Amino acid sequence: MRLAYTTAATTAVAALVFLVPLGWGLRNDHREAALADAAARTSTVAGALATGAGERGVAAAITLAGGTPVVHTPGLAPSTGGRADGALIDRAATAPEPTVEDVDGGVVHLRPVTVGDRTVVVEAFVPASALNRNTARDWWLLLGLAVVLVGGAVVVVDRLARGAVDSARNLVDAALAVGDGDLGVRISPSGPRELAEAGYAFNRMADRLVTSRTDERELVADLSHRLRTPLTALRLDAEALDPDDTQIIDLTADEVDRRRGIRRIRQAITTLEDEVNHLINTTRQAVADRVAAAPEDGLCDASEVVRERMMFWSALAGDQERQYRVVGAHLRIPVPVARAELAAALDAVLGNVFRYTPQGTAFEVGLSRRDGWVALRVDDAGPGIPDPQGALRRGQSNQGSTGLGLDIARRVAQATGGSLSLDRAAMGGASVVMLLADADATPKQPSRFGLVGRGRPARDRDPGRRRWQRGRE
Question: Model-level pTM greater than 0.85?
Answer without folding.
Answer: no
